[in-house]
Write a structure and sequence with these properties.
Organism: Streptomyces mexicanus
CATH superfamily of the largest domain: FAD/NAD(P)-binding domain
GO molecular function, one term: oxidoreductase activity, acting on paired donors, with incorporation or reduction of molecular oxygen, NAD(P)H as one donor, and incorporation of one atom of oxygen
Number of domains: 2
Protein name: NAD(P)/FAD-dependent oxidoreductase
Number of strands: 20
CATH topology of the largest domain: FAD/NAD(P)-binding domain
Keywords: FAD, Flavoprotein, Monooxygenase, NADP, Oxidoreductase
Bound molecules: ligand NA7
Structural class: alpha/beta
Family: Belongs to the FAD-binding monooxygenase family.
Helix content: 25-40%
Length: 541
């Protein structure tokens, strides 16, 4: 008979959040911690997303942990934006350096978790049927980890290989001499298409909605630049934490239409030439006001028309369905110019969706496009997908996925009423996906660690979000979104990419700096909005 293993805390996921949780809870609080990870290595998103061209859209020097000065001083990044292999080797370095692997169980999925009211503990059930218990359960499952291939008719009839960008084969894929279909033009498609086009015989891109993309201007990181940033790291990190997006960007010029036209254009020219997502923050009101938004949007349209030689293709690539910045802006290398290649064809799905997948390709508008391989760059069941995939049962056996049937409900994006001693990293209701993820992850993990430390000190065995506090937070998250243009886009932030998913704006738009202040204030006020129950008050057996 198997024995149920007991820990102080169980963490689900060994990406950047799970690794840092393990370090803080084990090494700073002295807890026994077990991390379950379905992959056979650390890194989460960066473990799975091995598609050609995969690269972070946040600069290397800031897409990195700040908790260890030795680590941040010693690690050397090679490029302005880190490639997937480099981020993965960084994650592995961190795992070795902080001896994380010894408490991570790889190739292990958590199928379910149930709270026991009598003992104030969670019992998780693993995919081999075994169980483990802990007082605290912390989910670190990522926001874009439930990859999704749409339910295309005939999908199983295709005789060639198919790939999803978020489940790329570890040994890589050789597209030499092959005709490749890429479905999807989000960040993943936009990064992969130029690289696949360099290798494949032909690439046919199937585009439902064009996206705004700005040049990365990726380049090797010079030693001087690295030294300069490292010398100023403390201040730069503090500035990033206090900022809206967890990244320090050049200040906005003011309201777009109040800025003199010449200055407006030269600022956009400057940002386009500098590269990176800071392009969208040239003005204060780009995501707040339609007319202001058009200034930056039309600037990108002009650049697309300039770069892409075929005017019809250029027009198809110009995003007109959503305001710029209301879907995460893509950061690319040679994306638009790729459409000037002889071996790249754009098929717009605007008027004709993919009718079906056949044994030899895709049928659109009655026309068969024959290909040898299909790449699905079709995205994720974002934010709620990875959590709803686990059967999480709180008080009285209530299921988290039932509680969230009409859209996710959390308090501060870290806890849920009815689910005591459960903490979630970067869940809906937090600003994480709108930010530099690592800044958000460190903030969440530090806050959760402090909350657990407080409970341990005070002899608290149960910490639970109050329903009223949760309702107020959900209302605040909705309110923050309602003042912006974000809900105008059919984005994964809104759940709009999944048929039948409730249309709720999931992330918190107040900014990571403001959010941090709110979380700190909640803690200072004795964890306002949480019910803290001391040991004697619960029915311990
Ligand atoms: P995204 O951004 O969700 O992009 C998915 C793409 O796939 C997008 O262009 C979709 O078109 C397209 N798609 C999805 N379903 C279909 C169907 N049924 N037919 C045709 N096209 C479809 O995922 P990514 O992986 O690129 O990026 C995710 C995040 O990673 C990104 O935001 C960054 O934060 C990093 P749609 O726009 O829905 O019309």
């Amino acid at each position: 008979m198997r024995t149920t293993r007991k820990y102080d805390a169980i963490v689900i996921g060994a990406g950047f959040a799970g690794m840092y949780l393990l370090h803080r809870l084990r090494d700073d609080l002295g807890l026994s911690v077990r991390v379950y990870e379905r992959g056979d290595g650390v890194g989460g998103t960066w473990y799975w997303n091995r598609y050609p061209g995969a690269r972070c859209d946040v600069e290397s020097m800031f897409y990195s942990y700040s908790f260890s000065e030795e680590l941040e001083q010693e690690w050397e990044w090679t490029e302005r934006y880190p490639s997937q292999p480099e981020i993965l080797s960084y994650a592995n370095h961190v795992a070795d350096r902080f001896r994380l692997r010894e408490d991570i169980e790889f190739n292990t999925s958590v199928d379910g978790a149930r709270y026991d009211d009598a003992t104030d503990t969670w019992t998780v059930t693993l995919d081999d049927g075994s169980q483990a218990t802990a007082r605290y359960l912390v989910t670190a499952v990522g926001c874009l980890s439930a990859s999704r291939v749409p339910d295309f008719e005939g999908i199983d009839s295709f005789t060639g290989p198919t790939y999803h960008t978020g489940r790329w084969p570890h040994e890589g894929v050789d597209f030499s001499g092959k005709r490749v279909a890429v479905i999807g033009t989000g960040s993943s498609g936009i990064q992969a298409i130029p690289v696949i086009a360099e290798q494949a015989a032909h690439v046919t891109v199937f585009q439902r909605t064009p996206n705004f993309s700005v040049p990365a201007r990726n380049a090797p990181l010079s030693e001087d630049e690295q030294r300069r940033i490292k010398a100023a790291y403390r201040q730069l990190r503090a500035d990033a934490r206090a900022s809206a997006s967890g990244v320090v960007t050049p200040p906005a010029l003011g309201k777009a239409l109040e800025v003199d036209e010449e200055l407006r254009t030269s600022e956009l020219d400057r940002r386009w030439a500098a590269g990176g997502a800071a392009f969208v923050s040239a003005f204060d009101d780009t995501v707040l006001d339609e007319a202001a938004n058009r200034v930056s949007a039309e600037y990108v349209h002009e650049r697309i028309r300039e770069i892409v030689k075929d005017p019809e293709v250029a027009e198809l690539l110009c995003p007109k369905d959503h305001p710029i910045g209301t879907k995460r802006i893509c950061v690319d290398t040679d994306y638009y110019a790729t459409y000037n290649r002889d071996n790249v064809t754009l098929v717009s799905l605007r008027d004709n969706p993919i009718e079906r997948i056949t044994s030899t390709g895709l049928r659109v508008g009655g026309i068969d496009h024959e290909v040898d391989a299909i790449v699905f760059a079709t995205g994720y069941d974002a934010m709620t997908g990875p959590l709803n995939a686990i059967d999480i049962r709180g008080l009285d056996g209530i299921a988290l996925r039932d509680e969230w049937a009409d859209g996710p409900r959390t308090y501060l994006g870290v806890a849920a009423a009815g689910f005591p001693n459960l903490f979630m990293v970067t869940a809906p209701g937090s600003p994480s996906v709108l930010s530099n993820m690592i800044v958000s992850i460190e903030q969440h993990v530090d806050w959760i660690t402090d909350a657990i430390a407080h409970a341990l000190r005070a002899g608290i065995v149960r910490i639970e979000a109050e329903r009223q506090a949760q309702d107020d937070w959900v209302e605040h998250v909705n309110e923050a979104a309602s003042h912006t243009l974000y809900p105008r886009a059919a984005s994964w932030y809104m759940g709009a990419n999944i048929p039948g998913k409730p249309r709720v704006f999931m992330p918190y738009l107040g900014g990571v700096g403001a959010y941090r202040k709110i979380c700190d204030e909640v803690a200072r006020a004795g964890y306002r909005g949480f019910t803290l129950t001391p040991a004697a008050a619960t029915a311990q057996p």
